[in-house]
Amino acid sequence: MAGENLPISYQPLVSVVMPAYNASEFIAEAIKSVLSQTYQNFELIVIDDGSVDTTGAIVSELIEKYTSTISYHYQNNSGAGIARNTGITHSLGDLICFIDADDIMVPDHILRQVDFMERHSNVGLVFCDYRNFNEGAFYLESHFQTCPQLLLQLKAKKELILEDPCLILAQENFGIAGTLLFRKSMLQYEPCFEPTLRVCEDFHFYYRLARHSSVGIVNEVGMLRRLHENNTSSDPTKMLSDGIYSRSLLRDNEQDPRVCTHLNRYIAGCQMGLARYYANHSHYLRAMQKDWQALSGNPCWSQAVTAWKGIARTILMAMGLKKVGDNGANA
């Protein structure tokens, strides 16, 4: 592939930032996947976000055993976004990427993205594809295969430059923090992750970066994302609440009305999701409030129908005329 023999002058230092919280079960595998990269001009910065398990001891052992390119920093528990901000402040590289402490980098992940950036000097950030896995098996589809708007532009191409990336991102989140690599110079526009977000902070960060640059897409799986019961995404109310908050922050500063429409649809979808959750847990007033917010905030026909159905469902449940399991109505 292109870039396998990049000349020394075209091998910029890459700072790999790894936030970690009580990550003792998986962090050794994550670190070894970084150390095994075919692109070797990198530094790995581990930010221990207040772990109370043996995360720090495992990292210290790996530093002693394998390499001096790993640095370790401990901070009080503050969330992954602030941990990444700490990692950014310690970074020395011209390029920055991330990996969560329970995920795995494919061996040529960094190489492919560095190669892309070196061939496209006008691109400020680039994403690769990823595949979810759990204890049972790998998912059949990669993430890009679940993103119809992105696939429509990719077709069969190996790579792509999106000139209007926020329009697609507002419709479908084609990335995660671990699939992003960006130029450190982009921090002049958006210097950090939003510290008030505990969930969706990665989307909020790279969406803001995408406002200032075209976005590269490498149509190859570069990250394996581990799903388990301790994932932040396993908390539905937190995911939905921060989904609303993160998109609301973006919408309030968005100049493109087309993008605002898609952000409003996402917000309404999260509000209706929260309404269903609250109704299923007998919080009927809160459920009706969320459905009403969805209805008033995004009064398009399809979502208005869904919101009214949600309100009717909640009323019937409050009256004891409908149960959670009726007609597949689980949360």
UniProtKB/TrEMBL annotation:
User: Please, which domain of life does this record's source organism belong to?
Assistant: Bacteria
Q: Which InterPro entries match?
A: Glyco_trans_2-like, Nucleotide-diphossugar_trans
Give residue ranges for domain Glycosyltransferase 2-like. Answer: 15-155
- Would you tell me the protein name for this molecule? Glycosyltransferase family 2 protein
Q: What is the lineage of its organism?
A: Bacteria, Pseudomonadati, Thermodesulfobacteriota, Desulfuromonadia, Geobacterales
